[in-house]
Write a structure and sequence with these properties.
By secondary structure, this protein is of the alpha+beta class. It has eleven helices and 19 strands. The chain is elongated and about 75 Å long.
Length: 402
């Protein structure tokens, strides 16, 4: 057996400017930005592209309105306000990344209430601060589900897109597919010296990768990478969700938050096409947050009763129900509260980033580029072929759960 020293001696060493660890939408967005800036950047993924939080998101490009349900615009609402316009530019093909091939499931998200809360909605949307974020909608322009004669609530149209997440991952990964690689997590060794990464080693491939900076965008997986790097700050927190999926054969797309008397949506519904032509309703909001205390059967029962109460006229033929537990991975906050914005921080000769929300991936990339500029990191590496396989794009949860 070769000693560690002799194994290192026969390894091929490839140097590049930047190595991104984590192939979700945040990492892919950053890869696009970096390569456009002239950096020789590569991305390493240990599973499938988007296989963590990205593929489990609802695809909503939030504009922050749901963070203002207490009647005032919060810091979180303001931090995310510009994101829909920024994403729209990219979807039109003239933004910082090219998302023109991605699929828009809905040009708007909606906010509805039961009839008993109509006055609250009117007062809430009368605020000057919300101008440009919401629009009234005429009866004939309402989505089909809200045109039913039994609907007695208020309905507003939000300036928020809903995207087909796999198509976004595909649009981000295709232009730079030659720089995106799949590595075996058990074969990935982080070599460190005095707190700095000296190389990423893949013994089975006899390959050593080095870079000016190592950028962690691996979501929940970044915690293990930081531990191996022996970096104690920043710490990561997990905020759990218990999402509900109902797959059915009704042609009834819904993209909406339902508000109650509290400051969070009772439920957030998005609709997604399936491979066999059916539809999947993906249910989040307060249902998913409070549902972490419920079993799968209890959560499904609760969701069925909630939809019956909120949309009693809706029938979903051939409905099959399932749940999914996921963790939102974020920089640690006091009392595990939600971060207000995207996060990026230098750590030794690297950067750790969490977008905290799908919509804030562009903001995280801004922060990383700013840090690289502050540190004087310039493109210097030459392009080299790397003998590693390419990862696949993760399948949506409604295709794998049923």
């Amino acid at each position: 057996m070769l000693s560690q020293t002799s194994l290192s001696d026969i390894m091929q060493t490839i140097h590049t400017d930047l190595i991104i660890l984590g192939g979700g939408i945040a990492g892919l967005w950053l890869l696009n930005r970096l390569r456009t800036q002239g950096y020789q950047a590569i991305l390493l993924e240990t599973d499938e592209l988007g296989g963590g939080q990205s593929i489990r998101s609802q695809g909503i490009i939030h504009g922050g309105t749901k963070y203002a349900l207490n009647g005032a615009l919060t810091q979180a609402a303001n931090a995310i306000a510009d994101m829909p316009a920024r994403w729209k530019q990219c979807l039109q093909g003239n933004g910082e990344v090219d998302l023109s091939s991605a699929e828009v499931l809905s040009e708007a998200h909606f906010l509805w209430s039961k009839g008993s809360l109509a006055s609250k909605m009117t007062t809430f949307f009368a605020s000057k601060a919300l101008k440009g974020r919401v629009d009234d909608i005429s009866l004939q322009d309402r989505p089909q589900v809200f045109q039913h004669k039994q609907f007695r609530g208020s309905l507003y149209k939000l300036n928020e897109l809903v995207l087909n997440v796999p198509s976004v991952i595909r649009a981000l990964s295709t232009p730079h597919a030659d720089y995106i690689f799949r590595v075996n997590r058990d074969d990935l060794d982080i070599s460190c010296d005095k707190g700095e990464i000296t190389a990423l080693e893949l013994p089975s491939q006899q390959l050593r990768l080095t870079a000016q900076r190592y950028i962690l965008t691996a979501g929940e997986g970044s915690e293990q990478l930081l531990n191996e790097w022996q970096i104690s700050q920043p710490e990561m927190q997990r905020r759990p969700l218990h999402m509900v999926i109902v797959r059915h054969s009704a042609n009834l797309p819904v993209f909406a938050h339902c508000i109650g008397a509290g400051s969070k949506p009772l439920v957030t519904i998005t609709s997604h096409p399936t491979d066999n032509g059916e539809q999947a309703w993906y249910l989040g909001g307060d249902l998913a947050e409070t549902g972490v205390q419920r079993s799968e059967d209890e959560q499904i029962s609760y969701a069925k009763k909630l939809l019956q109460d909120l949309l009693p006229w809706v029938e979903l033929p051939n409905a099959r129900w399932g749940t999914l537990r996921i963790n939102r991975a974020e920089p640690k906050q006091s009392a595990l509260s939600r971060p207000d914005s995207a996060f990026a921080q230098p750590v030794a000769n690297g950067i750790i980033g969490w977008p905290t929300k799908l919509a804030l991936a562009p903001d995280m990339s801004d922060q990383v580029l700013s840090l690289l500029n502050e540190q004087g990191i310039k493109p210097t590496a030459t392009e080299t072929d790397i003998p590693l396989p390419r990862p696949q794009i993760a399948a949506p949860v409604w295709e794998t759960l049923f």
